Structures are given as structure tokens and as C-alpha cells.
Amino acid sequence: MIQLVAAGFRANPSVPPSFYEYVPPVVSRFEGSPGTYRVASLTRFSTAPSSDLQGYVNFQSIPEAATIPPIAQGVFRQKLVLATGSMVQHIEGSLNLDFDDRSLPPFLYDVWIYILRQAPDALRIDCLLGRTNVKYIIRPTRDISGARLVSEVFNGSPQPSYLYENLCFVPRAYVAGTSIFTTSPLETLSQMATPAFDASENVILAADPGASLAVQGSGPAGRVEVTERQPNRVILTAHLSRPGYVVLLDRFDSNWHARIDGREVPVLRANQLFRAVYAERGQHVILYYYRQQGLLAGMFISALALVALLWVYLRNPDFTGHGGPTETSC
After folding, report:
1. 10 Å Cβ neighbour count for 171?
2. Tens of pLDDT along 8-20?
């Protein structure tokens, strides 16, 4: 611990509470309850020496930033456009990945390969983000994409950023009455990015045809509401007018499990990134819960090891492990 403090305290300086408590003006422009939408900040800042920060960031106009150390001022500028620190404001942001970072699952990495390298135009990028529950996009420049301009965004410099409302936005949870099956990430992402794709009525499942029940129909298949949301537990209430898939735009992970009306059901990877369960017609309560794979087995093995150690001790209570071999006389 001492080594960590000695090595890191200069790179991670203590900052005043205002660094965390300051609410960027852009937050007041968002509409909707926290947890029902995401925000994507596509602004990127060039790195400048700390001595030059005051030259391009107008901290004099932000009283709360007056006591922030120079080394933290660049990060504070990113907070103004929610490039960092969005969770402090109870706002869920999207994660932009470095191409050198291969530590995350490939299905998540494929999304940013498409956005940064494969998408044919900005409109399709906006639509793909909207289908991942991104309602607002903060851009460094003004453009004419399919999003609706909401307002300018103060970023600490004379040139503002811009806040857009994504017209391809899809709610956090919905009922899909039509299922599409494919194991191709490019096919999935291309279809999701197509402006004409009806994302609120369809679900693209990462499986071969026949791996799960297929559904087909026209018009709304039902409605769903998130009634409880915790880090390791989500409860949905769904009403289906016909069989369909209840889609939750929260990240897929094999450690997430689901129960419908108390019955365990498989969780499918949907729309490249998210989770879905099949449900019959009617009213249902869907519980998602997080349980680490191998946890019960690990606890069982640990308990057996403890019992074994206790058994060894009780069989030879005088054994201390410090004595040498017993001396014998000839």
C-alpha cells in the first residue's frame, strides 16, 4: 500500500470536492429518468502541457474550478462534455475502446471496429448508437446528421461542442415480435445501423436459425417496464399480446441468468451486445440476476478443504508443525 501511494500520488493528485460535485451545464438539457437512456460523448481533446491549459480552457468562468490543481484541469475539461465522470452525474455513457485494448469480449470490441472503421456514414453511426439506447450525442463540431440539434455545450473553450438528440433512440427494454438469427457481427451491426430498420419491433439473436424459437409478426407484440434495477438484479414486468422476445439493452454476460415467473430460462445475446429471453403470450415477471459461474463449486471446494484441515487437526491435536522428528533411543 505504501508503494502504491508513493508511486501514484503525483499522477492522481487530491482534488477539492468541487471537482466531483460540479454539475456540467449540459446535464440540465437531458430529459428522462436516469437509467433509461445513455449519452455518447464523441469529443476528443488533444493533450497539452499543464502550463498551457489556462490558455485554452476558460477556468475563470467556473468558480468551482478555481482551486483545481493544474494536473487535474485537463480531466475537468473532459467532465464538461461528459467524456469522463458521467457516472458521477448518474448518467450512463457509452465506452469508446482503444484498438490496442483486447481485454474485453470480442462482441463488444466489434461494435467499435464498425463505428470507427466500417460504418459508411455518420447517419449509420448515429442510428447504431441509438439502437444501443444512446439518446444524446455530444459532438465536437456541428454537423447535418440525422440527429436533432438541442443546444451548444460549454466545454471550457471559445469553440463550443454540440448536443444532439438521437432520432434512432430505442428504449432500455422492449418486446420484439420478430426474431432474426445470425452469427455474423458485421451483418448484425449493419442491420442495426440501417435507418429504416425497425429496431423496436425486431431482435437480432447471435445464434444459428433453429437454435431458439423463431417469432414473426407485424405490429407491437407487447410492452415492458423496468420495475427494479440494481447492480446484480433487474426485474421487468412484461405483457405480451403474442409470443416474442423481451429485450433488455443491458450488456450480455454469461454470468447473468433469468427467470420468468420463477422458472429458469436461457439468456440469449441480442443485438450484438445485449440480453433477451423468450416469453409466451400473457403477463410475466422477468428476473435477471447475476451469479458468477463456478462460485458455488468454489465455495464447496473451500468448505471441503476447511473440513479436511479440521479433521487433520482433531486427529492429532498435539501437532504444531514446529517440532522435528521424535528422538528414539537404541
Report:
1. 16
2. 666 655 677 888 8
Find the distance separating the first CA and the last CA of the chain, reported in whole Å.
55
Q: Report how far apart, in Å, the C-alpha atoms of 187 and of each of 31, 157, 184, 201, 238 are.
A: 32, 40, 5, 18, 29
Q: Pseudo-torsion of CA 174, 176, 182, 187, nearest 10°? A: -60
Q: Where are the domains of the chain?
A: 2-94+132-165, 173-290
From 166, 229, 230, select the one nearest 199 (Cα to Cα). 166
pLDDT at residue 44 tops 70: no
Cβ within 8 Å of residue 13, ≥6 positions away: 69, 71, 72
Radius of gyration over alpha carbons of the chain, in Å?
26
Q: What are 269-321's pLDDT values in tens digits?
A: 999 999 999 999 999 999 999 998 777 788 888 888 998 888 888 887 665 55
Q: What is the DSSP letter of 165?
A: E
Sign of the dihedral defined by the CA atoms of residues 104, 105, 106, 108, in that order: negative
pLDDT tens for 314-327 read: 887 665 555 555 55
pLDDT average, residue stretch 257-262: 97
Number of neighbours of residue 29 by Cβ within 10 angstroms: 15
Of 219, 215, 250, 217, which Cα lies nearest the Cα of 235? 250
Instruction: Give strand pairing partners of 260.
Output: 263, 286
